[in-house]
Amino acid sequence: MRAVWLDSARRTIYFGGEFDSVGDQDRSNLAAADTGTGLASFWNPRVVGEVDVLTADGRGGIAVGGGFDLGRRGRKNRIGAAVSRRRHRR
Questions:
Q1: Least confident of 5-9, 22-26, 55-59
Q2: Of 31, 81, 85, 18, which is closest to residue 55 (Cα–Cα)?
Q3: Disulfide: which of 22, 55, 57, 77 matches 40 by Cβ 3.0-4.6 Å?
Q4: pLDDT exceeds 70 at position 5
């Protein structure tokens, strides 16, 4: 884990780095978990490559930085937005 960002209003912790699972949930380098239960949320952006930085994007979501591909879009990125305006509960 290289980056952590806490959204206390949504009781969600976001984390990034180089990993392929969170507990028994399949997650690729970027994930979120409920701060009350510790369980991985349903949010699964499927990032290919390392995530180095997480921060608020100023619009209710998170900004993500690192050397990664957003797999579904197929292009290389160094910074991207992973908008997450809802609570990601299990």
A1: 55-59
A2: 81
A3: 22
A4: yes
CB distance 3 to 15 below 8 Å: yes
| Number of other CB atoms surrounding residue 83 within 10 Å | 12
> Would you place residue 14 in the very low, low, confident or very high pLDDT band (cuts 50, 70, 90)?
very high
Which helix (H) or strand (E) segment holds residue 67: the answer is: strand 62-70
For the chain, count helices (H), then strands (E).
0, 8
Q: What is the structure's pLDDT at 81?
A: 57
Contact 23, 39 (CB under 8 A): yes
DSSP string, 11-38: TEEEEESS-SEETTEE--SEEEEETTT-
